[in-house]
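Supplementary Methods. Inverse-folding protocol.

Structures were first reduced to a discrete structure-token string of length 372. This string, shown here, constituted the complete conditioning input.
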């Protein structure tokens, strides 16, 4: 009986010890689980294929913006899941709809967009450019149409203004002593003076009129010399204009967009820029589609970001499309984030560090080449 009692007591002690050990192990596991860092969820990064910036023809996107983002994500210790947006419009909608944590773009930084979502520090600085279809027509009406340009209108306006001013002065100096050539009556006398100036420009003088006063002759001499220069300048301008028209059409810069049908990528900053200049905007899902429409003659020109247009117009199937005029309406381009995103400050710091250590320039040069 004594042995049986001892065995029972020993068994009870063992059971209690096992219970205590199990309890301690469970408590330690719970404590470790409580102190272990929670897994960081992957960031949803929305991208859309953009010429020269992002290409997505394989299982994963690639391009200069992808390399820049992967460097930024590595600095922040963030995992990434890329989400494909079919168009740039859909990309812009991901941030207000909270279906993405980041929109790569690059997205032009404007006041209007800052009201809709957050934007990081600039990654690129670029501007808008105009693409037109090369024209090789040489008909009379094509040449005649090309004569109407802003440069020509400015020159003619300057000449008419000077002729009107000097016509008044010439009439004033000649009206008393030479009323036969320049009658005293105001409207008629000024008209005769302007007619004399026009004749001097074209033929070098007017047979039935002469200038007698010293100041009048000074004006006459100026127009005789100036007429030669003016004819030479006008001939040079018309020749250059007709030549340029045969190569690039009648659009040579941003101010020539007024009244023209211009293709733009939907939701791009180029739309407002073209409308401010009086252009008629035709929106397309991408610059690819806009340039295809230009090649078919559906639009007169395409306006888009300079780097993208340079990339696209250098492709073999677009040899008849050329870029004209200088860059205009420059913008900074950054990365889009939802409003009040906690990532903004960290991303801005990482972008500044990439810029300072040369990583940003190195990645851009690897993909886009070195530009001044």
């Amino acid at each position: 009986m004594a042995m049986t009692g001892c065995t029972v007591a020993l068994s009870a002690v063992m059971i209690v010890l096992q219970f205590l050990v199990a309890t301690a192990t469970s408590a330690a596991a719970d404590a470790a689980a409580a102190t272990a860092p929670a897994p960081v969820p992957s960031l949803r990064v929305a991208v859309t294929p953009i010429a020269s910036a992002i290409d997505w023809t394989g299982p994963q996107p690639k391009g200069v913006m992808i390399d820049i983002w992967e460097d930024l994500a590595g600095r922040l210790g963030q995992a990434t899941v890329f989400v494909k947006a079919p168009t740039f419009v859909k990309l812009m909608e991901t941030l207000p709809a909270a279906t993405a944590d980041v929109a790569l773009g690059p997205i032009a930084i404007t006041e209007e967009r800052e009201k809709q979502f957050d934007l990081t520090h600039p990654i690129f600085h670029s501007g808008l450019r105009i693409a037109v279809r090369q024209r090789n027509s040489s008909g009379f009406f094509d040449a005649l149409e090309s004569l109407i340009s802003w440069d020509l209108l400015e020159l003619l306006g300057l000449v008419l203004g000077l002729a009107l001013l000097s016509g008044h002065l010439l009439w004033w100096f000649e009206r008393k002593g030479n009323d036969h050539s320049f009658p005293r009556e105001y409207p008629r006398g000024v008209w005769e003076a302007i007619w004399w100036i026009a004749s001097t420009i074209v033929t070098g003088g007017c047979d039935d009129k002469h200038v007698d006063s010293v100041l009048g002759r000074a004006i006459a001499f100026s127009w005789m010399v100036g007429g030669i220069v003016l004819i030479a300048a006008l001939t040079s301008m018309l020749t250059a204009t007709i030549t340029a028209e045969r190569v690039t059409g009648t659009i040579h810069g941003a101010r020539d967009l007024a009244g023209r049908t211009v293709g733009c990528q939907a939701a791009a900053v180029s739309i407002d820029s073209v409308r401010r200049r009086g252009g008629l905007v035709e929106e397309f899902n991408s610059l690819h589609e806009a340039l295809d429409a230009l090649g078919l003659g559906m639009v007169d020109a395409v306006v888009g970001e300079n780097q993208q247009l340079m990339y696209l117009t250098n492709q073999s199937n677009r040899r008849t499309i050329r870029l004209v005029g200088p860059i205009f309406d420059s913008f900074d381009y950054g990365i889009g984030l939802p409003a009040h995103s906690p990532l903004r400050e960290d991303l801005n710091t990482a972008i500044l560090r990439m810029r300072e250590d040369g990583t940003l320039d190195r990645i851009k040069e690897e993909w886009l080449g070195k530009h001044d």
